[in-house]
Specification:
By secondary structure, the protein is an alpha/beta fold. It has one domain: 4-Layer Sandwich (Metallo-beta-lactamase, Chain A), CATH 3.60.15. The protein is about 30% helix and about 25% strand. It has five helices and nine strands; from the N terminus they run βαββββββαααβαβ. β8, α5 and β9 form a beta-alpha-beta unit. The radius of gyration is 17 Å and the shape is globular.
Length: about 170
């Protein structure tokens, strides 16, 4: 905001993050708005914060981008997506492996973190389920976002998603 960039977010997010001023543009789920050649439809996602939103963006050229991060589940189904940017934070298998390998002193802390992961972040397994439930026929490119340092495997995630979808898969830098 100090750099002159508008911040679009829900009222709940703005209040929780202490955001205020003319650069904060409050939006609401299921109420579309436009920025340039893009029409954006915010939709509710599941996360342990106030009023989290994902975004379905459609441009005048007919491209459809889905953006969903900081969520563990997306309840909606989408047709005709061409690009997807989605959180793929951890693998349930890697989390379990890390818990088993941890010392007795550290294990309770990891178990506590695991409980939060389950209700705040998208696992590889749930992302795959999301892709299987949606129309992936036009998807050209998928970006995996927000990978955990300790509970993910970039190459495994990329390989699994590419094998499932046939799309080009890229992983955002951490």
């Amino acid at each position: 905001m100090k750099a002159g960039i508008d911040v679009y977010c829900s009222k709940g997010t703005a209040v929780a993050a202490g955001l205020d001023g003319h650069r904060v543009i409050r939006i609401a789920e299921q109420i579309p708005f436009s920025i340039g050649t893009w029409t954006i439809l915010p939709f509710r996602v599941e996360h342990d914060v106030e009023e989290p939103l994902g975004f379905l963006m459609v441009n005048e050229a007919g491209e459809k981008l889905l953006f969903a991060t900081d969520t563990y589940y997306v309840r909606y189904r989408f047709n005709g997506l061409t690009h997807i940017m989605i959180e793929c934070n951890y693998s349930e298998v890697i989390v379990e492996r890390n818990i088993i390998a941890a010392s007795e002193e550290v294990r309770p802390q990891l178990i506590s973190r695991q409980r939060r992961l389950l209700r705040s972040h998208f696992s590889l397994e749930n992302v795959k389920g999301f892709f299987q439930a949606n129309d992936m026929s036009r998807v050209q490119e998928i970006w995996l976002l927000h990978l955990s340092d300790a509970n993910s495997d970039e190459e495994l995630f990329k390989r699994e998603i590419q094998g499932l979808t046939g799309a080009i898969v890229r992983v955002a830098n951490r």
